Amino acid sequence: MPTPSKAPTMEQLELQEATLVFEAFDEVTALDLGSALVAAAQAEAAAVVIDIRTPDRTLFHAALPGSAPDNDHWARRKSNTVLRKHRSSMLVGMRNAAKGNVVGASLGLDPMDFADHGGSFPIRVKGVGVIGAVTVSGLASEDDHAMIVGVLEKMLA
Predict the structure, then answer these.
(1) Rounded distance, CA 35 to CA 44, Å?
(2) What letters, b where the CB count within 10 A reaches 16 and e where it falls short, cover 38-58?
(3) β strands within 6-153, DSSP E
(4) Partners of 136 in beta bridges
(5) pLDDT tens digit string along 32-64?
(6) N or C: which end of the chain has fewer CB within 10 A?
(7) Options 1.10.340.30, 3.30.450.150, 3.90.1150.10, 3.30.450.70; which CATH number does 10-156 get?
(8) How far is CA 43 from CA 76, 90, 108, 147, in A?
(9) Which residues pair with 58 in a beta bridge?
(10) pTM of the predicted model, to two decimals?
């Protein structure tokens, strides 16, 4: 099992989002990113679901041994948050908590369709903006997020 990660600050999350930007992103990039996440999860024996999607299309999906159908639902809800807010699900959650908000009717976000827990990150393309979301579900919120960021840092270096 992975060593639990410490939650990043809002400033660190904003910096991650500003710097982890693709020059271009297509199906091949999605496959490369998904495969790198599978390898990272296998190296940690992490029972996770990995999902990469645009607003209207799944580009990559893998359910690793030990993951459960509930992880798929969490991945969908967290990626919906990213696709709606164009921010990582962890940053959305921290901003909501700072304001005393929770996902629900007051925010216009049905908790059956949205989750503001860590583990989904915007796929941002330089000169274009957010075109999708990459999501990991199955670990603690901070660890789901950290797995994505770690792979993105290596891939975009």
Answers:
(1) 14
(2) bebbeeeebbbbbbbbbeeee
(3) 21-22, 49-54, 57-63, 120-125, 129-137
(4) 50
(5) 999 999 999 999 999 999 999 999 999 999 999
(6) C
(7) 3.30.450.150
(8) 24, 24, 39, 11
(9) 53
(10) 0.93
